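Justification of resources, computational component.

The compute hours requested in this renewal are based largely on the per-chain cost of generating structure records like the one below. Each record pairs the submitted sequence with a full structure-token output. That output is archived, and it is also reused by downstream analysis tasks.
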Amino acid sequence: MDQKTDHLIPGPQGHSKFWQNAHLYFDRVYATMNLDPLWRAVLSTPKRVLTVSCPVKMDNGGIQVFTGYRAQHNNARGPFKGGIRYDDAVNMDEVMALAMLQTWKNALVDLPYGGAKGGVVCDPRKLSMGEKERLTRRYTSEIMPIIGPMQDIPAPDAGTDGQIMAWVLDTYSMMVGQQSLGVVTGKPVTLGGSVGREEATGRGVMNILRKFLATQNKKLEEVRIAIQGFGNVGSHAARLLAERGATIVAISAKEGGLYDESGIDIEAATRYYKENGVLTDFPGADAVSNEEVLTCECDVLIPAAMESTIDATVAPHIKARIVCEGANGPTTPEADEILRDNGVTVLPDILANAGGVTVSYFEWVQGLENFFWDIQKVQDELQRVMERAFDQVNAKADEADCDYRTAAYTIAISRVAEASRLRGLFP
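The structure output for this chain reads:
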């Protein structure tokens, strides 16, 4: 790097490992693209990060102060877009890294959005419905100055759901004095949400995996799949894949999971999980740890929990030949290299799990137009967008003789870089 521009590159020192990993993936690809080094810092630095204090009256009469964040990474291609998570591990570096990943994801599937992410440091399982509502309304009021249907559109993420998005919608609409369906996606259908949104990320994972298998002359019925994470992404992916004939040999939630080489009854396991809150005591399958799910005998591994679950200690023991990333940032750069060296194909997160934001885009459009689609149109349009993105990544990987993650990042970064260059700098 030329010494005159080296100072423009933000160093990851002092930041969390996850933030460093997000930068490393970006830097690794950017360095190969022959782009103007002057734009490197612009593309890798968040535009804005807001930290808010959210005092909430608890059910016991006391007041607890929660910390919330909203990171807005880049809006060269359109309004910021990204989820809100409620988790006790939320921190500023995490939401900045996730916002950066969201920018590349939105660009890769060619949505007119930039990337954002938000979060509140809390354990939602320990909050009553009343406490969650008061927290959500306070958090919404605190980030009000930087969100809006044409400014920044939140959505659900880990620990949040349609009910929480309904409270965001209501709080924002009350404060601006008019109904504003486009301010948030992932809402209940009765409040302007889109049919098919809840399962959209899992359906997108299924679409991408099926499309990749077709390039290998294989079908879903021929593969054994392990899924780590049984939340919104993992549970729907498991159901949709099982319905199409795939054998789901392992699933897991936070407390651990199940393994059955002959295949797990996903419908029964889902029912059991909803009733009991755990998977490990489900009859007819062996209880296993989350790490054992990652390293079990299978053809396809779908990490669908949290970031950095596949690291350099886990990667050498992964037996799957395909890793389809349902979570955001589940594989560290070191693990990514190990998997590549071991001949494992990784279908990267910014491609594989883009189904959720794609249907969020459909919901946003429907809300702005007050004209709503049926489920068949949503599913058909989602499949079209996901398969088009896969075809572009597959072609780039063939053309550049590179892995899918490099190909996906190359396409995404080039689109954001071109939009940033055309818009220029203000003032």
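The first helix runs from residue 3 to 6. The domain at 200-352 is CATH 3.40.50.720 (Rossmann fold).
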